[in-house]
Amino acid sequence: MLRVGMECHPCQRWLTRIATPYLTQWPDVDFDVRTAFRFDGVEALLGYEIDLLITPDPVETPELLFTPVFDYELVLMVHEAHPLASRAYVEPKDLLDEELITVPVTLERLDIYTRFLVPAHCRPRQHRTAETIDLMLQLVCAGRGVTVLPDWLLHEDASGLLIRALRLGDSGIRKSINLGVRHDEERTSYIDGFLKLAQEMGR
């Protein structure tokens, strides 16, 4: 059995790309997914609760091996009639009067805070959470706030919606989806098969 854990909501959406071709290639391997986004994935991997971790935040530890499989950029999504919509990029101070919608995790796990707002000593006027990406996008479409999501979700989930994507800072915030496994287990056939398929589909 391949037990997969995920540490972010977009990771779940990314996994749907891989699951069907993987299950087709490995029909004899049971596939179990842990979707509790608030759990400590590294601890679960080290504790043998899962066999593979999908995360945007790899850690350096001798017991684990992390492989980047898909690069993306975090972008601010706003309604196309929003005052910021005509901008090529936004600065932290531009969010001072905004209602920011994020997934329900601690601020320490949100790049919009740790890599953008906090270093500039800025906070949005209001911060609210939404359980699903679809709800976040619908709230943005209704003019109820702004959100930050991977750019590829704009093409897959927001096609046809009245939403604009803006770069965070003039150089942007770039991330990667990484697959983490315990050292030496990357040689296990069905784990190696998952890693190779993910790398092929991430190109």
TrEMBL record:
Q: Name one Pfam family in it.
A: LysR_substrate
Q: Which SUPFAM superfamilies match?
A: Periplasmic binding protein-like II
Spell out the GO cellular component terms annotated for this protein, sorted alphabetically and separated by semicolons. protein-DNA complex
Provide any one GO MF term from the record. DNA binding
Keyword Lipid metabolism tagged:
no
Top-level taxon: Bacteria
State the protein's name.
Transcriptional regulator, LysR family
What organism does the UniProt record list as the source?
A: Mesorhizobium plurifarium
